[in-house]
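User: I need a structural model of ABC transporter ATP-binding protein from Banduia mediterranea for a docking pre-check later this week. Nothing fancy, just the predicted structure tokens so I can convert them on my end. Input:
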Amino acid sequence: MKRSKTPPLVAASSRGAWPMIGALVRAYPGRSAAALSAVFVAGLLDGLGLSMLLSMLAVATDGDTADPSLPEQVALRVAATLGLQPTAPVLLSLATVLIGLKAVLSLLANRQVGYAVAHIATDLRLALIRAVMGARWKYYLQQSVGRLSNAVATEAQRASEAFQYSAEMSAMLLNSMIYMVIALTISWQAGVAAVVAGGLMLTVLQTLIRSSRRAGQYQTRLLGTLLSAISGQLAAAKPLKAMAREDHVDALLSDQTRQLRRALRRQVISKEALTALQEPLLAIMVGIGFFLSLVVLKMPLAAVLVMLFLLARVVSYLSKGQRAFQQVVVRESAYWSLIDSIEDARAQSEPRGGTWTVQLNESIRFDAVRFSHGDGRAILDQTSFEVPARALTVIVGPSGAGKTTLLDLVVGLLQPESGHILIDGVSLAELDLRQWRRQIGYVPQDSVMVNESVAYNLSLGETDLSEDDLREALRSADALDFVEAMSDGLQTRVGEGGSRLSGGQRQRLAIARALVHKPRLLILDEATSSLDAEAQAAVVETVSHLKGRLTMLAVAHQGQLLGAADHVYRLAEGHMVLQPQPRVAGDVVVDD
Ligand SMILES: Nc1ncnc2c1ncn2[C@@H]1O[C@H](COP(=O)(O)OP(=O)(O)OP(=O)(O)O)[C@@H](O)[C@H]1O
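Assistant: Understood. Predicted structure tokens for ABC transporter ATP-binding protein:
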């Protein structure tokens, strides 16, 4: 599988919009530089185009070029370099070309930003998924699926949009700075007025930015808990519906939805208030400017018009920049929440183990293993026992005794507090964990089937497996006949959760899925306990056919599987006791 690179996410000690922008720029220096350069050149072209227009105005009105301003000088220099007479039509044509070029460059810059947004969202999603999948099993168990889905879907999207608005904000700030420079070169009063007016507006409206930030934070928090609650309730949809308790879900969710609505309302109000207040503020500033320059300072109208045009441009770009910044702060909390999730998961990353590799030719041996889930109760208490290779070993024991925990220890999902688990005499702690797990076929109690074809459910999307590999696994799991009898054979869709298959068929497909990679150890965790006698018999027959070909370790409460076992251990109160050869009475056995 082709793996795209994980972004170099930067942990920021202080949280906020600016550290986030800094982190994004550091993570994507090339894309940020390309977008900003395009924006900068577009701004320059725009400024140059405006210089042409101003020169044209000067040429067209009085033709006085004795004391030209900087923009006029630039325009005249450009015209001279091109060997053109600086007449009004020539300057107008040049201005049109430059402003057109600016439009093309802005389009390219926006496209660049759009690509970057998609790229960032994908990178953040991959970073989170990899970090979670690479974390310790204990960490994974503590996670809420809804919260993770929310982080992958919503938070990654909002975080990447923050980059888009940051780029937009930078473009507006650059443009306003370019106009500020032009204003300063024409008249220092215009420049100072632009700086003061812009600063005033940004300060006055800062409260609305703060309010947007709070609304964004609230939204991020609520979306996390809401999605967590929804996914939990959906997972329990069947019993809820069967017992007519849907109203209860409704009540639970409607409260959170109401709070989310309030947060969104506050966000919308802050956004609209900012837009609504910026315009009158700009109009008031221009009005005051007119009054001061025309009435108090008695400046000529032409100069005042140019000055106020520049002032309006500076303040208008700053306003747009502030509106973009508002969108950045609304999304900033989503970015930090996602970064927190990625860093939490990375901090819990699972050790890769050692470098030894084994083939499981001899045995799996527990040597004085002690394990508890951290609550003081020893699930395994100095436990020693052996699972011989190429035999079927079944573990029985009362519910909650720790049978699944023991399987998790064999797989290396959990680690013993003391003692050793030895595979062919090598401690599991020294084994290359991935190499070990790649030799394991795992069949859980309730095998999850996805609503795809039989073939997809066997390969789970792995493209290296041929149709022959799939058929061979189905044959070994005694599932080939029923699959071939289905309407589209391997391509038959199995329905949501495998609903178009019987329980026995589902389990045999799950065994085929576990066998498709030709494992050396097959683990069956209560693989037959939810099946009726007939389906159990079919699975047990499958398992019996596999005996001698690979090592099998199964957990069972009762049932026919015990009858097929080579060795049966009973786990109770932390100790494993080898059982005498099991007694089978019909399909009910032994666990006495
Ligand atoms: N992640 C966990 N954190 C804390 N306690 C756990 C965890 N997983 C299991 N336990 C506890 O450890 C004990 C053993 O659980 P385990 O699932 O291994 O038992 P089991 O023998 O497989 O039970 P059953 O036959 O009912 O499936 C139980 O008391 C359970 O509550």
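Before docking, keep this in mind: Residues 1-5, 585-592 have pLDDT under 50 and may be disordered.
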